[in-house]
UniProtKB/TrEMBL annotation:
This is DUF3775 domain-containing protein. It holds the Pfam family DUF3775. It comes from Chelativorans intermedius. It comes from the Bacteria.
Length: 140
């Protein structure tokens, strides 16, 4: 685990918001992983021919879609400073930057923040872990 550093700056993005995004990312990731468990992606099993109209799976799928939609909306609502900090936190958690390089990470993130940020973040396989590790590293 990385040690936290003494901060000489304030976050624009609240740590609770980062934790909320990490939790949503974890839920989204778990939904994808469950779907592809044991190589049985999208395989349908019918236990009883009389129960063909049970739609519990559809309700569950809709809930997962809402989580991703909520994640995307939260990202879209961030201003440039908040989005850059979120990306920098993810990079620090992933090990691309050390916590001591916060200003450099945020400056680089600010240049890369665009409308594709949600896709970029959702493409990170361990986003939730990296956000939490990044927060811990910067002492937030």
């Amino acid at each position: 685990m990385k040690r936290s550093v003494e901060r000489e700056w304030e976050l624009s993005l609240g740590p609770d918001t980062v934790r909320l995004l990490a939790e949503k990312a974890r839920t989204i990731s778990a939904a994808v992983n469950d779907d592809y468990d044991d190589g049985k992606e999208h395989e349908i099993e019918f236990a009883d021919e009389t129960d063909l109209h049970n739609h519990d799976g559809l309700a569950e799928e809709e809930e997962e879609d809402l989580t991703e939609e909520e994640f995307r909306e939260l990202i879209a609502d961030l201003n440039v400073d908040e989005a850059a900090e979120l990306l920098a936190i993810a990079w620090i958690g992933r090990g691309d930057y050390e916590a001591e390089e916060w200003a450099e990470a945020v400056a680089e993130a600010r240049q890369r923040v665009n409308s594709g940020l949600a896709n970029y973040l959702l493409g990170m396989p361990m986003l939730s872990d990296w956000l939490e590790e990044g927060l811990a590293a910067i002492g937030a």
